[in-house]
C-alpha cells in the first residue's frame, strides 16, 4: 500500500467517527433537552443514546447497583445503619461520599447533554439547553447539599452531646459489654433532670427530677417523679457522701424546719460546692451526686442521666412543630409566689386555658411543663410527664426527616448526658421499643409518704417502687387508675382516682378530664 493511500485512510477515519457521533445526536434543541432530562433520571442513559454504549451501560449498572445495595442494607442490615448514624468518623466519610456522588451525577448530566445536542444549533437553542442543564444541576446540588448538611448535623450532635467513654469522666457510669449492653440489665434506670438555669437564676437548680425505669426486653417504662422540695435525701453507706450526711442531706442544727438550701433541687449546685471531687473524677459532679442519692432514695441503681436545659427545651418543641396536649385546668405562664401573706407576688402574664388537643408552640409548651403559680408540685410533675409523652408522640418520621437539622441543633444545646457513644446503637434500638410500649407513672403516695418535704418516708417509697417494677401485667379495665367514668347526661368525663402507691398509664393520666383540676 502506497504512502498516499495510508494517509488518505488516516484522514478519512476521523470523519467516519464524527459521522457516527452525529448520527446519534438529537435533531433539535428541544429533543436534546428531553433526552438530557432522561439522562438525569437514569444516569448513563444519555451516553447510550449518544452512541457511547459501553460507558453508558457501565454507569447505568453502577447506578442501579448502588441503589440496590442501599436498599438491601437499609432493609436487612438496620444495625449497620444505626451504627453509622452514631459514629462521628463514619458520618464524616458518609458526607464525603454524598458530595462525591452528587458531583459525579452532575458531570454525567453535563456530559450527556454535550453528547446529545445538535452539531448545528442556534444561539437561542444553545442558551435554552444550557439553562435547562443548569436547572438540572441545581436540582441535583440542592438535595445533595441538604443531605450532606443533615449528615454533618448528626455528626455535630453526636460529637457534642455523647462523648466516647475514653474522652469523658463519670464517677457513677457502669461498665458494660459494648456488643450487648443489656445482657445483664433487665431494667435500665435513667435519671432525667430538668435544669432551670435561665436568666435571673443564681446557679443551677434541678426543678425536675424523674427516673425512667425501662424494661430492656419489651420497652415498657415506669416514670417516677420526685418532689423538688424533698429534704434528707439519703446516700448509700459505702458512698463518700454518707460520712458527711449520715442522716441524709439536711442540717440538723437548723431544726426540723424547711431548709430550701437542702432541698433536692439544690443538691446539684450545693453539694459539689461543699465537697468537690468527693465521688471522684466527673464531667458533671451535680448529676453524679443526684444519681447516687436518688438511686438510694428509690432503691434503684441508676445507670445514666440525661439533663435537659429548660430554655433549650423550648427550641426542641419549636423544631418538632409544637406538641399537642390536653389541658384540664388553667396553667399559669410566668408568676412568682413569694409566700403566704406576701404582697410581692409576681402575677402570671396569662394562663393556658383548659381544652382537649391543644396545640402548643415552644414557649407555651415550656410553660405547660413548668408553670406552678397557685398549683401544687404533683400537678406540675404530672404535666411534665405528659409533656414528655407528647414529645415522643410528636417525633414522627415526617418531622424527623423534614426538620432534622433544627432538631439536631436544638438537641445539641438542650441535652447533657453520660451515655457513651459506644452504646448509642443499643439505645436507639431500645428507644424504638419504648415508643411502641406502655408508659406508666408510679404514684409514691404523697399524702402518706411526704405530706411535706421535711421528712419523706423513703423506705415506704422504695417498697412502692419495688412492687411497681415487679408487676408483670399492664393495668386492666377494673383498675381505678386506668379508667374514666362518664356522668349520665354529661359530655365531660370524670377521671377515676389513681390508688395510692399504684401505677397509671400515661395515656389515661394525660387524657382530657377537666374535673381533675
Automatic annotation (TrEMBL):
<feature type="transmembrane region" description="Helical">
    <location>
        <begin position="56"/>
        <end position="75"/>
    </location>
</feature>
<dbReference type="InterPro" id="IPR050922">
    <property type="entry name" value="LytR/CpsA/Psr_CW_biosynth"/>
</dbReference>
<keyword id="KW-0812">Transmembrane</keyword>
<feature type="compositionally biased region" description="Low complexity">
    <location>
        <begin position="474"/>
        <end position="503"/>
    </location>
</feature>
<feature type="compositionally biased region" description="Basic residues">
    <location>
        <begin position="8"/>
        <end position="28"/>
    </location>
</feature>
<feature type="domain" description="Cell envelope-related transcriptional attenuator">
    <location>
        <begin position="205"/>
        <end position="395"/>
    </location>
</feature>
<protein>
    <submittedName>
        <fullName>LytR family transcriptional regulator</fullName>
    </submittedName>
</protein>
<dbReference type="Pfam" id="PF03816">
    <property type="entry name" value="LytR_cpsA_psr"/>
</dbReference>
<keyword id="KW-0472">Membrane</keyword>
<feature type="region of interest" description="Disordered">
    <location>
        <begin position="1"/>
        <end position="28"/>
    </location>
</feature>
<feature type="transmembrane region" description="Helical">
    <location>
        <begin position="123"/>
        <end position="148"/>
    </location>
</feature>
<feature type="region of interest" description="Disordered">
    <location>
        <begin position="469"/>
        <end position="517"/>
    </location>
</feature>
<comment type="similarity">
    <text>Belongs to the LytR/CpsA/Psr (LCP) family.</text>
</comment>
<feature type="transmembrane region" description="Helical">
    <location>
        <begin position="91"/>
        <end position="111"/>
    </location>
</feature>
<dbReference type="InterPro" id="IPR004474">
    <property type="entry name" value="LytR_CpsA_psr"/>
</dbReference>
<keyword id="KW-1133">Transmembrane helix</keyword>
Amino acid at each position: 500500500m502506497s504512502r498516499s493511500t495510508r494517509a488518505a485512510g488516516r484522514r478519512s477515519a476521523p470523519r467516519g467517527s464524527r459521522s457516527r457521533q452525529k448520527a446519534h445526536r438529537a435533531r433539535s434543541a428541544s429533543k436534546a433537552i428531553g433526552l438530557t432530562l432522561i439522562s438525569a433520571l437514569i444516569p448513563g442513559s444519555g451516553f447510550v443514546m449518544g452512541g457511547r454504549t459501553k460507558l453508558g451501560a457501565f454507569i447505568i449498572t453502577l447506578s442501579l447497583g448502588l441503589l440496590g445495595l442501599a436498599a438491601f442494607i437499609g432493609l436487612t442490615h438496620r444495625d449497620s445503619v444505626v451504627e453509622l448514624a452514631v459514629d462521628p468518623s463514619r458520618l464524616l466519610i458518609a458526607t464525603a461520599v454524598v458530595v462525591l456522588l452528587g458531583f459525579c451525577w452532575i458531570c454525567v448530566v453535563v456530559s450527556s447533554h454535550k453528547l446529545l445536542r445538535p452539531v448545528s444549533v442556534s444561539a437561542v437553542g444553545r442558551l435554552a439547553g444550557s439553562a435547562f442543564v443548569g436547572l438540572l444541576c441545581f436540582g441535583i446540588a440542592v438535595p445533595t447539599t441538604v443531605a450532606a448538611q443533615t449528615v454533618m448535623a448528626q455528626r455535630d450532635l453526636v460529637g457534642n452531646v455523647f462523648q466516647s467513654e475514653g474522652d469523658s469522666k463519670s464517677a457513677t457510669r457502669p461498665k458494660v459489654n459494648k456488643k450487648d449492653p443489656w445482657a445483664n440489665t433487665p431494667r435500665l434506670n435513667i435519671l432525667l433532670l430538668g435544669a432551670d438555669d435561665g436568666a435571673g437564676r443564681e446557679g443551677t437548680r434541678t426543678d425536675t427530677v424523674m427516673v425512667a425505669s425501662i424494661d430492656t426486653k419489651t420497652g415498657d417504662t415506669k416514670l417516677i417523679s420526685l418532689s423538688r422540695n424533698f429534704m434528707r435525701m439519703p446516700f448509700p453507706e459505702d458512698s463518700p457522701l454518707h460520712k458527711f450526711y449520715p442522716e441524709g442531706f439536711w442540717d440538723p442544727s437548723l431544726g426540723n424546719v424547711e431548709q430550701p438550701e437542702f432541698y433536692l433541687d439544690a443538691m446539684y449546685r450545693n453539694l459539689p460546692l461543699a465537697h468537690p471531687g468527693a465521688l471522684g473524677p466527673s464531667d458533671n459532679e451535680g448529676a453524679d451526686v443526684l444519681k447516687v442519692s436518688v438511686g438510694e432514695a428509690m432503691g434503684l441503681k441508676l445507670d445514666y442521666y440525661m439533663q435537659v436545659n429548660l430554655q433549650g427545651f423550648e427550641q426542641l418543641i419549636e423544631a418538632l412543630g409544637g406538641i399537642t396536649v390536653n389541658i384540664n385546668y388553667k396553667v399559669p405562664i410566668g408568676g412568682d409566689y413569694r409566700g403566704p401573706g406576701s404582697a410581692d407576688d409576681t402575677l402570671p402574664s396569662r394562663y393556658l386555658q383548659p381544652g382537649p388537643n391543644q396545640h402548643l408552640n415552644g414557649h407555651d409548651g415550656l410553660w405547660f411543663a413548668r408553670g406552678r403559680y397557685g398549683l401544687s408540685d404533683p400537678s406540675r410533675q404530672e404535666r411534665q410527664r405528659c409533656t414528655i409523652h407528647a414529645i415522643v408522640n410528636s417525633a414522627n418520621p415526617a418531622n424527623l426527616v423534614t426538620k432534622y437539622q433544627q432538631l439536631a441543633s436544638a438537641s445539641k444545646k438542650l441535652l447533657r448526658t453520660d451515655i457513651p457513644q459506644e452504646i448509642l446503637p443499643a439505645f436507639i434500638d431500645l428507644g424504638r421499643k419504648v415508643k411502641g410500649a406502655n408508659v406508666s407513672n408510679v404514684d409514691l403516695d404523697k399524702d402518706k409518704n411526704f405530706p411535706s418535704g421535711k421528712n419523706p418516708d423513703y423506705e415506704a417509697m422504695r417498697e412502692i417502687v419495688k412492687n411497681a417494677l415487679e408487676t408483670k401485667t399492664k393495668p386492666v379495665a377494673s383498675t381505678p387508675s386506668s379508667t374514666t367514668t362518664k356522668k349520665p347526661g354529661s359530655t365531660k368525663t370524670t377521671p377515676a382516682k389513681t390508688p395510692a402507691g399504684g401505677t397509671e398509664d400515661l395515656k389515661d393520666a394525660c387524657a382530657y378530664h377537666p374535673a381533675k383540676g
